[in-house]
Structures are given as structure tokens and as C-alpha cells.
Write a structure and sequence with these properties.
Strand order of the largest sheet of chain A: 2-1-3-4
Distance between the termini of chain A: 99 Å
Strand order of the largest sheet of chain B: 11-10-9-12-8-1-6-7-13
Number of domains of chain B: 2
Number of helices of chain B: 6
CATH topology of the largest domain in chain B: Rossmann fold
Shape of chain A: elongated
Helix content of chain A: 40-55%
CATH class of the largest domain in chain B: Alpha Beta
Structural class of chain B: alpha/beta
Oligomer: heterodimer
Number of helices of chain A: 27
Largest sheet of chain A: 4 strands, parallel
Largest interface: A-B, 41 and 29 residues
Number of strands of chain B: 13
Number of strands of chain A: 10
Amino acid sequence: MEAAREAFWHIEYGWLIYLLGLLLLPLIGYTIYRRRRLWQIGKPEGRFEKGRIKAFVTGTIDILLHKRLLGIGAMPLSIGELYAGVMHLLIFGGILLLLLVTSLFALHEHVAAFLRGRPYLVVSLLGELGGVAVLSGIIMAAIRRYILRPERLDNSLDDAVVLISLFLLTITGFILEALRICATVPTPLWEERWSFAGFALAGVFGLGDASLLPWYQRIWWFHVIIFYGAIVYLCLSFSKLFHVIISPVNIFFRSLRPKGALAPIADLEEAETFGIANIEDFTWKQLLDLDACTSCGRCQASCPAYISGKTLSPKRLIQQMKIHMEEKFNNRMTIDRLLIGEVIAEEDIWSCTTCRACQEACPVFVEHIDKIIEMRRNLALTESRMPESVQLMVGNMFSRGHPWTGAQHMRLKGDWMAGLDLNILGKGRDTDTLLWVGCTGALTDRNAEVTRSLVRILQNAEVNFAVWGAEEPCCGDPARRIGFEILFVEQAQQNIAFFQEHRVKKIITACPHCFNTMKNEYPQWGGVFEVLHHSQLLAQLLSSGKWKPTERQDRRRVTYHDSCYLGRYNDIFQEPREILHQLPQLDVIEMSRCGQRALCCGGGGGRIWMEEPVGTKINRIRTEEAVKSGSEVVVTACPFCLQMFDEGIRAKELDKTFKVMDLAEIVEENMTFFNGHDRGGTRFVASVPSGHDGV
Amino acid sequence: MNIIVCIKQVPDPEIPPAKFRIDPEGKRVMPPEGVAPVTSVFDERAMEAALQLKDKYQAKVTAVTLGASAAKSAIRHALSIGADEGVHIQHEAAGELDSFETAFVLTKAIEKIGDYSLILCGRQAADWDAGQVGSLIAENLAIPVVTVARKVDLKDSKVRVESVMQDGYRVIEAPMPALVTVSSEIGLPRLPTGMGILKASRIKITNWNVQDIGAELQGVRRSQLLRLYIPVRETKCQIIEADTVAEAACELALCLRKAKII
């Protein structure tokens, strides 16, 4: 006899399950329709652009491989995160296998009987593996949720219901299998051993015991009731398990804009209000995000604001907005709870560093930052309500064209150029390459040193470049990140016009914020240039032999801190590391949070100009992490990070044993100068005329 | 009610003092390279005072500046935060006028604008700190002037001003039209809103030169700059040594008394 299985073995009215299934389809459809009506209160947004088909395909692959949950293609996950990823993969993969196996059995029964002999055994084994996977996943989940209790999870009744029903479903599946084995054969066929778990369980129940048959029938129906009951529950309560439908949709429709480009305000010239102050003013995709969120809390666990004790939690932000969307819709849009101020605290809107850690961690591609920026736009442009420090920064950008102000910035934009013999764009030799210094690289003492290091390296490597000089304005990024879009647009347009007028083709900059804006956002205003971050250029110059590492006696342990706008936003993780690894006397250590999961220094999104009165200062936490890695030097490639570490090191009084350096500085310190260039080892002191104490 | 606010664009006072350059021969301040001029801080406060009145009583606010072509940006900014009209009296040598000449030109411009109830000026300009122009305009127009206001309000068709004193303030009421000079206590100047910036870009700024307003400058100057120099500041450090801290402190106290500091 060939191994096979009889459908609806000893079950009368088994066909009822198809009827029930048919009855439930409209319920599932209605649930989706009900949620879709919520998203439809949002504004239209074209997400069927070029590349969407490809996004569907890559999205499917991402889901199947659990790319984000397992950290594939990124720096290794922590054990806790890996645990959660494996757990989800087991449940997900197991259920997928079980669905496949069940469908195959249905095909076998009703279409073509093909599951006999070996194919049957293989399929049966697959089902067994699926069941075991789901069961182990559920046990892992229960341990995690109720024993390990990671902070990012909050426990609701729904979580318990979902876990218990999945558990009952799998366990009854195994029991049914075991009872079938018990009841069919006194000495089971060796083939039954392919159903290894059921076989083992059958041994426990007592093989060959036909009296178990009524129990088989009862449990079979129980199994069916749990399955359909769970579906009814999912639909009626819009349980988070509904994410199996909504989240893939959200992943398929994920943003295809460059990661670093914010969406411009449409019809800026004609606008009456700016940004978003009402939930219904978000686009349908922004609202779909709210339903796709499963509250997994990966965003919260990676959020620098949350980690440092601010009230902002990206998870709570999304969940609160979801509640608000529901309440507003259910009350015919008349609810008077304000989105800004009541649903979402203004403080939370300003706490975000726009570091993108939340969005990189989110397995379902929720777009937190776009929502926060839209609310900032409303506060900045419509309401004119900003923290005082932000007002100062904006005011300074208006009057001085750069965000730095006050007594701590006692420099002029051209000061850093002293004694460097620089080519000023349009005034000296011809070149299409501009070294964009950026406000921080020009105005703050510590970063001016970096700029000067970089210039000396470029000069030594005989790169033909020019600088804008004392008149170089701001790139506009600070204005854009705090929501002052109009100021950004003005600044971007002016800069683009200037670049085009001077036929600039290539822009080099040491500031990831300028880099990101020019590379990803200027094209929105027709400014397409080849933009290179200095880490990329230095790596290129190294591989083409334009500078060579030098041997030194002293060895140093260094760690590299990923700037958010370089790493997460622009995927530049390798170049700086390659350079550091090629400097022979450096031992490069990684911090526990690095690469895609690096912790922000706290300076992005305009935060570097804001006070940080609540919780621990983010830069101090990151400084501690850098020290804890066992390194002596933390290397950055961003002027904000440099400033933030500098402050952190001084505040913690670590300046004797630990220091922060820019990539350019450490390169300059460890390279051979070809043509007798002065290494310029002296620190940067601009020409101060005698007779002044500069106070 | 029509309010006229006089604003002046000055070299950025936030530049490092070490970067401050003068031309002693030409008796001129050299504008620092790459640093755009800004609206004088007290004039920003005067504008804020006008906008506070506008918020409360509905008024038409006109911003007036006398300056070189770059000064237009100061008017544009004033419009973006809420001024209704802007007048730019373009005069490339405006920086070399003395207080009397400046007040004279502004008076002519105000007369040409005509209908006004209140004129607001900063208490002094952030560059020369002379603090003359406001009072001189009032003198020229023969209207009352109240200086150094910390609060400006209206009461029964009069202007009611809290004027800052050394250790407090006095409340002065004056019939309108009147001129008030405003101090920083009035509050931080507001930032433009998005709508404000867009609206401002659509307003046409009135452009006059001194001839247009009949401001013949011959013989108006009444002060002369004799010498322009940067004072040399010397710092001397004396370290007081003694066997114990208490003795050193006594010694320090004696030194300070000798120097007539305490």
C-alpha cells in the first residue's frame, strides 16, 4: 500500500469548512474595506510611479528573507534583536509551510490526486516542519513577551489572544495527527515516521487504540473552530495579526524617493497653509502606515530621543495617530482634539533628530520622519511657533545666511582660509570642482581645523578644486529639517543658480548634511551635480595612490562613528572604514551600535541648535558608547558629530584619555606628504590683529 | 491708524570684535567681508512694537529705511513679518550722514508719506549708538517724543508709553501723532510665517531717492567726526601671593581698595 492520507478521515460534514471559508471571505474583504475608508480620508499621493513593480518584487523578497528582521545586508544584530527575528521567521515560515501543505492536500483531494508515496511523505514532512517551526516560534514569543519582557514591547490582551490561538491551533494539529496515527494502525507503517512529531506524540497516547477516535473527531472540530474563530476575531477587532495583510501592502508601497530627500511642499507659491495640522491632511499612504504598524517597538528601541529619556517614542507617535485617525473618522471628522499639541506633543515633534534609525529598523517601512517634518512645517510656517533656540537659528539664517550665532562663534566665514593659498571660484584657475565647506566647517573652530586638514590633503593629492570663499552661504538643510521650507527653497535656488553660473559639475564636502541636501534634494530644484563626501573622495584618492599611508610607531585603537546622514541616509558605511583599515597603525574597533544601527550623536534635524533640557544628553550617551568600545579615538566624518563628541568628551572630562577626530584629520596625521607640503601641524589660529583680545 | 517704523541696516554687530576694521583716514567703518548687514536690533524691536499694536488695534504699518541698495532686504524682512508697506530711500552714502542729516531725510520721507498717527524708532542704532535720530525727527515734525519704551499702547486716542528709567519705568501719555523710541524690553522680534514671506514677495517696495522727497542736504549737518579709532585695551595680570589663602584674600581686598574698586 502506498502512503497517502484520506481527506476528512472519519469526519462527517467536513465540506462545511469550505462553506465557512467562503462565508468568512466577505468578512475579511469588509475589514479591509473598512480600514481603506480610513486611509481614504487622506490626500491623494501617486505611489504607482516608475519602479513600483520592482518594489513589489524586492518587497516580496525582503519579506520572505526577513531582511530587516534578521539584519541581512547590514551590521550584525544584537542577540535580543536576532532572537526576535528568528522567532518571527519561525512563525511566519511555519505558517506559510502549513498553508502550502494544506493547499496541496486540497488540490490532491479535489483536483488531481498526486500525493501518494514519496511526494506524500515529503509534503507530510514539510507540514511537520512547519508545525514544529510555528510551535517553537510561539514558545519563543511567549518567553520573550512574558518572561524576558524587552522594554520595547507593551502587552495587550490582543497579543495574548493571538499567541494563545496560534498555540492552540498548532498543538491541536499535532494532537490530531497523533490520534490519527494511534487509531489507524496497531503497528504504524514506517512511513508515519516522516511525521516525526505526530509519531512521537502517538507513542505517548498509546498506539493502536481505536477508542481515541471520538476524541479525534471532537478535536478536529475544535481545531476548525479555533481557526475560523481566530479569523473572525482578527477581522472584528482589527487585531495586530491583521498585519499579515496590511503590512505587505505597506512594504509594496514604500517610498521610492531617495532616502535623504524630503518631499517638497506642493504649490509653495500658492499655499495658504503649510505642513500638516490635521490627520486628514496626510496622504493615504501616510495613513496606511498607521495601520501597518504592529507596535513591535523596533523604532522605539533605536530612537535616540527615546533612549535618552525624551517623551518622544516613534512607536507611540504612530499608534497615537492611528487612534486619532479612528476617532476622527468615527465622529464624522468633528472631533476637536488637535493633532499637534493634544495627540502629539509639540515637544515630541521637536525632539526628533531625523536620524532615520526608526525607519531603518521598521520592518514594515513606516515613514515616521516625513510625518514629523510635515508637523514641523505647520508649526514653523503657519503657526510660527518654534522653540526659542530654533527661532534664533532661523532668525540668524534670515539675517546672516547661516545658522550659527552668538558669542561662541567668533569667526567669519573666510577665516579658515588663512594661509592656505586657495583658488576662489570664478576668480582663479579654471575648475569644475567645488570644495563646499559648509557653515560648521567654516565657522566653528574645531571644524575649521578639519576643513584645513582636508584642503592640505587635496592640495597634496593635486586635486584641482576651488572654494566659494567668505561669501559661501548655507546649503539650506537646517531650515528644511526644522520645517522652514521656504527659507530652504530660497537658499537652494540661489546656490544652484550660482553653481550653474560658475559651471560647477562636482561638489566635494566634508559635511554629510550639505552632502545629502545637495545630492538628494537639489535635484528637486533642477540642480543636478556630482556630489562627493570627503570620505568617498579620500577612499578614491587612496586607491588611486594619490595619498599613501605612512608607518608610525605608536598604535592606536580607534572606533568609527557613523553619521546618520552619511550612513543610514546615503549608505556610505564602507568607505570611511576602508580608509581606517588601511592606515597600518590603527586598530579599528566597532561600537555595539554601528552601521545601520549606529546611535545618532544628537545633532541632526536642527537639534544641534536646540536646547536639550529633558533626559540625558544624547551626545553624552554616544560618547560613553565610544569610550566603552575600548578605543582611544572616535573618528567621525561629520562636523555636527565632531561638535557633539567634542562637547561630550569635555563634559565627561575625558579629554586627557579620549578624543574625537575627523576622518580627514586622522588621514592627514597618518599619510606621507609627497611634495614637502607643510603638514600644518599647528592648530588653527586665524590672524587676530594685535591690540585686540578678541573678547 | 497708520504707524511708520524707521529701520536702519547696520553692519552685523555679532561679528567677532577682532574682525572689526576701520579706515581711520577716511573715518569709515570697513564692512567685514562676506558678512551681510542686518537690521539694527532696536529697530527690530520698534517693528515688533508696531506689530503688537497692529495685532491689537488694526493698523497700517509702513517700514521706512534710509540706506544703500542692500537695505532693501531689511524692508523685505519687515514686510514678511507683517508690515503693510515699505519705503526705501536709496542713498548709497547713507552711512556717512550724521544724525541731523539722517533725521532730516527721514522727516522729509515721513512728510511725503503723510498720514500717520505714530512713528516708532529704535532707541539707538546698533552701529553708532548715537540715539539722536528719533528725537530729531520729532523735533523736525514738531510732535511729542517719548524715548526708551518698554511698552507702547493706546488709550483714548493717546499713546501710552512705559518709558524705561534707571531703576524702574514711568508711564507717559502723549497726544498723537507722536514719536516713540523703543527698547529691547518690548519683546523678541517675531519671525516671518510662510504666508508672510509669500505675501511680502508680492508687495512692491516704494523706492525714493533724496531728490524725490526734496531732501536738500546742503547745510543740514551739524556734527563733525574728528577722529575714528579703536581704543587699545590692555589687560594686566597681578598674582597675589601669600602663605595662606586668608592672607591672600586680605591682600587682594587691600589692592582692590587701593585701586578704588571697593
